[in-house]
């Protein structure tokens, strides 16, 4: 077992904008530590549903020295443009937009780290474009959903409501109201996905835009309908195609509850049968533990990165402070 003494490093962030045919994705690239220690280790972070690129801000300082971290706001999230009128958001469309964006950034190979819905997106991306993904890290998401007519109908209803809402004048909140709503929204997901005030303040700058009188949400109301349930059993089909190393980090108060434990074990069995290797780690915390308590996630993540570099990419220098 690798023992890691983690000391947070300064992260130098640079904003970027990626133009796609339909609009623009906003994001940022961070370098951990001194630029002189720049390694060729690249990590692409993918945020969760109705979160944004800031979700990795607290984890980034604990990554190995010289790591380059690219995080984009998904379409309809954060500072990125909303999809055109008549479009809707689903996992495959997120994957395709992400693929176009990383290709424009000329990121040929990288480690994928996804949280929640971002892990679902990363899982599908890894199966479809294996030549680009060195390793895959899933942060508290391994819950295949059943395809039901009811769930699809509910998403359609949310989509149509969102189409109406986006035409209306946005609701304006005070800073305190916006923070409270960010916390409440993640508590009411029914999966113990609580964040604290500090975490809410990290998300706020990209979750909302400042307008006269306060803050208005920046996400597309249509993005509330994500159609994840349409995957159903096809989740296992995608997962069975993954050959690279995989790390699953499950929060003990996250979405892997006793109610889905059987499904969780079934999914792990698919990874074990096909991935180069699978590491599964449970950490103390809620669904957003990577944001609220980043050290708890950083320790198994860095250990995993060490093994990835040692066994699959020996040419990649990894300068972690041990």
Annotate the secondary structure layout.
Elements: E1 11-19, E2 24-32, E3 42-46, E4 68-72, H1 91-104, E5 110-115, H2 117-128, E6 133-139, H3 149-165, H4 175-187, H5 197-207, E7 208-211, E8 214-217, H6 234-239, E9 246-253, H7 261-274, E10 278-286, H8 289-292, H9 294-311
Parallel strand pairs: 3-4, 3-5, 5-6, 6-9, 9-10
Antiparallel strand pairs: 1-2, 2-4, 7-8
Descriptive overview:
- With 322 residues, the chain is of the alpha/beta class.
- It has one domain: Rossmann fold, CATH 3.40.50.
- An eight-stranded mixed beta sheet has the order 1-2-4-3-5-6-9-10, with helices on both faces. A two-stranded antiparallel sheet has the order 7-8.
- The two termini are 12 Å apart.
- The N terminus and C terminus are likely disordered.
Strand content: 15-25%
Give me the secondary-structure category. Answer: alpha/beta
Low-pLDDT parts are: 1-5, 317-322
Output the radius of gyration. Answer: 19 Å
- Please tell me what the overall shape is: globular
Helix content: 25-40%
Give the termini distance in whole angstroms.
12 Å
Could you give a short account of the major beta sheet? Answer: 8 strands, mixed
Mean pLDDT: 89
Query: What CATH architecture would you give?
Result: 3-Layer(aba) Sandwich
Task: Write down how many β-strands occur, each being a DSSP E stretch of 2 or more residues.
Answer: 10
CATH class: Alpha Beta
- The order of strands across the largest sheet is 1-2-4-3-5-6-9-10
InterPro entries: AB_hydrolase_1, AB_hydrolase_fold, AB_hydrolase_sf
Keywords: Hydrolase
Protein name: Putative serine hydrolase
Pfam families: Abhydrolase_1
């Amino acid at each position: 077992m690798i023992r890691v003494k983690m000391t947070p490093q300064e992260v130098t962030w640079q904003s970027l904008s990626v133009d796609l045919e339909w609009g623009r994705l906003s994001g940022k690239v961070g370098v951990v530590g001194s630029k002189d220690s720049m390694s060729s280790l690249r990590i692409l972070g993918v945020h969760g549903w109705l979160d944004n690129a800031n979700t990795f801000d607290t984890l980034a300082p604990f990554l190995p020295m010289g790591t380059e971290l690219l995080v984009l706001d998904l379409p309809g999230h954060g500072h990125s443009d909303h999809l055109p009128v008549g479009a809707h958001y689903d996992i495959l469309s997120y994957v395709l937009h992400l693929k176009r964006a990383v290709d424009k950034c000329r990121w040929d190979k990288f480690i994928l780290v996804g949280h929640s819905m971002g892990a679902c997106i990363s899982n599908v991306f890894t199966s479809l474009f294996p030549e680009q993904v060195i390793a895959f890290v899933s942060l508290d998401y391994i819950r295949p959903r059943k395809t039901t007519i009811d769930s699809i109908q509910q998403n359609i209803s949310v989509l149509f409501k969102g189409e109406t809402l986006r035409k209306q004048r946005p609701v304006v909140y005070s800073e305190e109201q916006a923070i409270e709503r960010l916390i409440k929204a993640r508590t009411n997901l029914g999966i113990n996905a609580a964040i604290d005030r500090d975490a809410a303040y990290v998300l706020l700058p990209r979750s909302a835009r400042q307008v006269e009188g306060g803050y208005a949400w920046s996400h597309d109301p249509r993005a509330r309908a994500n159609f994840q349930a349409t995957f159903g059993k096809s989740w296992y089909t995608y997962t069975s195609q993954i050959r690279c190393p995989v790390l699953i980090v499950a929060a003990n108060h996250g979405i892997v509850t006793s109610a889905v434990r059987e499904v969780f074990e079934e999914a792990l069995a698919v990874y074990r049968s096909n991935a180069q290797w699978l590491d599964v780690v449970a950490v103390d915390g809620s669904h957003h533990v990577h944001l609220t308590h980043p050290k708890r996630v950083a320790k198994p993540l860095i250990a995993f990165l060490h093994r990835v570099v040692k066994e699959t990419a020996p040419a990649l220098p990894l300068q972690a402070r041990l």
